[in-house]
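Work Package 3 (structural annotation) set out to generate three-dimensional models for the target panel prioritized at the project kickoff. During this period the team completed the workflow that converts sequence records into discrete structure tokens, so that structures can be stored uniformly alongside our sequence database. As a representative example, we reproduce one entry of 209 residues exactly as it appears in the project archive.
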Amino acid sequence: MAMKEQSIEQFLTDLSAKKSTPGAGGAAALVAAIGSALGSMVGNFTIGKKKYESVQLEVQECVHELEKIKMDLEDLIQKDADAFYPLAQAYKLPKSTSAEVEYKENVIEKALVGATTVPIEIMEKAVRAIEILGSLSKIGNTMLIADAGTGILFCKAALEGSSLSVYVNTAEMKNMQKKEALNQKANLLVEEGSFLADKVYKKIKLSYK
């Protein structure tokens, strides 16, 4: 059974168990998916209301994209687990001879890149969700502005959490060019997404004072 088809109870049980997967990456993807779902809820409570007639099309587009992001993130929960497996197997390879050591290092290097790709994807989805949620916090139903803010905070947590999955993998890489490229991409995503999330959160918080 795919992880996205599990009950919440089963997923949390597996997450807390002495098992490699699901792990931080899958948890981050789930958190970002929940954040995106909150955005869709805000949009759906806006669509069809006369008060927000002038932004109907824009809100519909926001909901449509957030639903796509949510489904992509659901798939990334499984992809994160699948990407970790080759890395875990690579670390078990023998290293008794120089040839085995060289082979093991090459396999690990390749697996590290694969295990880093998924967290980067999660980060990209989280940043885009933050952008859309930011828009909905401005044009969406004002009764649900706190829900938009909560969604943004969830996506920010997923963004920063996924960055740690990137850094833990790149720290083991031998290819310095690849390592720096991946770290730089993660750094830029965190900077961009966190800045926007903090900005919107502060604005929403001030609106209740």
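The radius of gyration is 20 Å.
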